[in-house]
Specification:
The chain is mainly α and 304 residues long. 65% of the residues lie in helices and 4% in strands. The strands form 2 sheets. The chain has a two-stranded antiparallel ribbon with strand order 1-2.
Length: 304
């Protein structure tokens, strides 16, 4: 196949199991702050002390600085978003409202740095096949554009009801899709043999809820599914790379070029549209929402 080697039926079934599992645990965390605290505070403490030193140490495929930083930054996002959602007055604090954008930008920047780093790597590195090339630079630039087009964090609100979701009306479908393409390209470029699950399944597990379950809460879905996946893969690193369910990348340079080109094209398009909206309506993206005139924005705002 173009992106991956042959996928046996049981790997395809497992892909759907992973997708469903991530979505289910995300929904459980949404519905209960106590489940969220157990998942994103208590469990990581236990894993940090008792599990990860053995499973995610030096030489492991998840033993790099990136994996350790990524799991804790995702967890920090989950806990910060919980503070915004459940501590009285936090959703009115303008400095706290900047936190989601900051943690999102940091997460993207971590991956951009890794993409640039992998540009000069080739062969087996930390148990993962690396094929560095211009595609890493292309996708790194796409990631930087993705950061620049983050907007509207001052319009973040907490929804009414039991789940008290963190809703970001200005974070609309076109930015999410550009992010998804960029992030898949990043995983395909830098952890290619993990991308069947850590790229496709993980990204879809937060995009489906954002489009169909709770619109406007994409970043909350993303942080929670990412934290769940990172904790799982650091505890069971063999699952994505060595188990019978593993699906290897095709390691095709053509595929690497294509996914990174799509990523760069999508993010250039969003960047151009972003600048167009700012200049046409004379909107300062640091002070007001950029897309408040769009139907998709209004639909999310009205629901919350």
């Amino acid at each position: 196949m173009f992106l991956f080697e042959a996928m046996p039926w049981y790997s395809i079934v497992m892909w759907f199991v992973v997708l469903a599992g991530l979505m289910l645990v995300n929904e459980l965390a949404r519905m209960s702050k106590w489940v969220s605290l157990a998942l994103f505070l208590v469990l990581p403490i236990v894993l940090t002390i008792a599990v990860w030193p053995n499973t995610a140490g030096e030489g492991s495929s998840v033993g790099t600085w990136f994996h350790w930083v990524k799991v804790y930054s995702a967890l920090a996002g989950c806990l910060g978003f919980m503070a915004l959602r459940f501590i009285k007055g936090m959703d009115k604090n303008k400095f706290m409202l900047m936190f989601p954008a900051i943690i999102l930008a940091i997460n993207i920047l971590e991956a951009v740095i890794r993409d640039f780093q992998v540009y000069s790597l080739n062969g087996m590195v930390d148990g993962v096949m690396m094929i560095g090339g211009p595609w890493n630079i292309m996708n790194g630039i796409a990631g930087l554009l993705n950061i620049i087009t983050i907007s509207g964090w001052m319009g973040i609100v907490v929804s009414k009801g039991r789940s008290r979701d963190m809703v970001w009306p200005d974070q609309l479908w076109f930015w999410i899709i550009a992010y998804d393409i960029w992030n898949f390209a990043y995983v395909y470029n830098c952890v290619s043999d993990h991308s069947f699950y850590a790229g496709a399944a993980l990204l879809i597990s937060c995009t489906i809820p954002a489009f169909f379950f709770k619109k406007g809460a994409w970043l909350q879905h993303r942080a929670q599914t990412l934290a769940i996946w990172m904790m799982f893969t650091m505890s069971f690193p063999a699952f994505v790379g060595e188990s019978k369910f593993a699906v290897q990348s095709s390691h095709s340079e053509t595929a690497l070029w294509v996914v990174s080109a799509l990523s760069l094209a999508a993010n250039i398009a969003v960047f151009i549209y972003h600048i167009y909206k700012i200049t046409k309506h004379k909107r300062n993206p640091l002070k007001v929402e950029v897309y408040s005139d769009l139907k998709a924005y209004k639909a999310v705002a009205e629901q919350n």
